[in-house]
Amino acid sequence: AGDVKTLKIDDTPLPRSKNLDVISEFEKSKSKKTASFVVVGHVDAGKSTMMGRLLLDLNVVDQRTIDKFRKEAEKIGKSSFALAWVLDQRTEERARGVTIDIATNRFETDKTVFTILDAPGHRDFIPNMIAGASQADFAILVIDAGVGEFESGLKGQTREHSLLIRSMGVSRIIVAVNKLDTVNWSKERFDEITDQVSGFLTATGFQAKNISFVPVSGLNGDNLVRRSENPAASWYQGPTILEELENSEPTARALAKPLRMTVSEVFRTMQSPVTVSGRIDAGSLQTGDALLVQPSGEKAYVKSLQLDEQPVDWAVAGQNVVIHLSNIDPIHVRVGDIICDPARPVPCLDTFTLKALAFDFLMPMQVDVHRGRLHSAGRIEEIKALLDKVTGAVTKKKPKIVKPANVARIVVKLGSKVPLEAGQRVVLRSGGETVAAGLLE
Ligand code: GDP
User: Fold this and answer.
1) Residues 136, 139, 140, 144: is their CA dihedral positive or negative?
2) How far is CA 276 from CA 55, 103, 340, 345, in A?
3) How remote is the CA of residue 84 from the centroid of ligand 1, in Å?
4) What is the model's pLDDT at position 303?
5) Which pLDDT does position 274 carry in this prediction?
6) Window from 16-25, 45-54, 75-84 with minimum mean pLDDT
7) Ligand 1 pocket, 140 CB below 6 A?
8) ipTM for the complex?
9) 45 CA distance to ligand 1 centroid (A)?
10) Phi-psi region of 19 (alpha: psi -120 to 50; beta: other; left: phi over 0)
11) Contact partners, residue 39, CB within 8 Å, separation at least 6
12) Which pLDDT score is estimated for 192?
């Protein structure tokens, strides 16, 4: 028995379940609505500044913190960056593991608890954005109204980001037409941008009723939380960004579906050597539940649960939760894994069929496959058919190539088995560019 390894497994007696009917507990709890959103747009459009300002005006961060950042920023001659640092600073804290609060960029109003998914400003932003968008109820698209800026943004990331978030299933988009202070709150400029952007957003697949436009100055906080008091801005009397967020209905939560949760962090805590955090994508769970971790296929139990740093007995789809696990070895749990119901587990696949929208030319080729936070190397093996964009009917069998903006059924092969199932949204990238996005069949 010399080669038997002693594994450090938390094998305390199994936690006792209260056998709650979680769905009816949830309905009784009248808890606040939860909603998550991503912030996208061209680099320098003002995403970080706007979110910093929003958190300041909502008193999530205080003026003293901003003043401290401003002093530091002045030292390096960039005083305007103080607001943007609010998000970056908190993100850095997260990266260092100082806090286990997964939803650091969180704020609440009387009606809703909001989570800002994935602080913008990361260098390789797209993979983060894919992960964020796969969990987002809505998106804020930030556009720089500055002369010449809007036009270059539209050719750049604005288009790619819009396509990506739509492909990831986000259907509600709030367009913040930003930096209107730099064009003296020109209504003509706002109307011109609104016209062009609604044109390309509807072409991207957003329905007109799900698109709103708000003229803002993120730097000054005009029309974010409070209405602009600038007389030049008085022509706009519509909702602020915060009002648009509050008036948006989050995606229906799949509470009655089998449990699915993507692991976004794994760490050790006082409560357990294997604590995980992430958002519950579907279903519900409670203390004492048996869980299955994919792809390892190992079982674990819910020792205890935390929501917003408070211990709770249960959690449901749409919530960001911290789970202290027992009876599992840490080597079996990794970031990107899926935690699921052992009776109805997510399968692990190395080949799958995708109904894909091509962003670029597609042919048998190497690709990076992104699903939520997970990405792995793969290959387009076969193009089965070109499909009609509206009806999905086959228009041509076995084409050699798929042209940009066309829809096709393709077969993708991965280097190893990963948890994947029908209905999931996947993005294919190649050489740092997004080449396709689609739905697993
Ligand atoms: P990001 O790359 O989209 O996150 O953009 P940042 O938030 O870092 O902003 C880029 C630059 O635009 C910074 O110098 C900001 O101070 C500036 N900026 C952002 N919002 C506004 C605004 O509403 N008005 C003006 N005049 N400048 C802004």
Assistant:
1) positive
2) 27, 13, 13, 18
3) 8
4) 94
5) 94
6) 75-84
7) no
8) 0.99
9) 6
10) left
11) 47, 50, 51, 116, 120, 139, 140, 142
12) 94
